[in-house]
Amino acid sequence: MSANSNVGRRVTFRELFSIHPLVEIPIIQRDYAQGRSTENEVRTEFLKALHSALSKPSGAPTLPLDLDFIYGSVEEASRNAFLPLDGQQRLTTLFLLHWYLAGKDKKTDDFAEFIRDHGRSRFAYAVRASSGDSSMRSCITIPILPPTRALPSPPK
After folding, report:
1. 16 with 24: CB under 8 angstroms?
2. Cα–Cα distance between 7 and 116 in angstroms, integer?
3. C-alpha–C-alpha distance, residues 128 and 110, integer Å
């Protein structure tokens, strides 16, 4: 499937990996807005939206949660990697959320099978060549997380 056929297409986090076997956050990226102390409202609203979506039954008509667009380039050569230019924080949040929920639901093996390819993560951060590795793909491990009782309440 060519990259152009996905322009404007809505996909879930998992569907993104069926289109691109690797999602790699580029070395050069803008500051994370959600981490700024001045962006408390953005962070709070994002967490509320995630909590609301996770609290709904799986067949709810308002699912999946729309997290706006994510755009980037595709390295079509050998890797068919998606390199997001905007949406890096949302993708990272979704990766961590899937990881957490896999542990909570005791499905870490399923998650590891989905997110790994030949023992390396399919969600990666590019790092500078001086670090000795072209990406963090070999560094990511999927530990078994202890289950929790319930999702915490969203911030007020």
Report:
1. no
2. 26
3. 31
| Residue 76 confidence (pLDDT) | 75
DSSP 12-44: -HHHHHHH-SEEEE-SS----GGGSGGGHHHHH
Dist. CA 34–CA 26, nearest whole Å = 18
Tokens of 15: 């569907």
| Sequence-ordered list of residues with C-beta below 8 angstroms from that of 24, at least 6 positions apart, any chain | 81, 82, 83, 124, 125, 126, 135
Q: Is the N-terminal amide bond of 84 cis, ω within 30° of 0? A: no
- Only one residue has tokens 């729309």, namely 66
pLDDT for res 152: 59
Dihedral angle, C-alpha 47, 50, 56, 58, nearest 10 °: -160
Give the pLDDT of residue 150.
56
- Burial code of 86-96, b = ≥16 C-beta within 10 A, e = fewer? ebbbbbbbbbe
Which residues of the chain carry a pLDDT beneath 70? 1-5, 29-34, 127-156
Query: Quick one: pLDDT at residue 78?
Result: 74
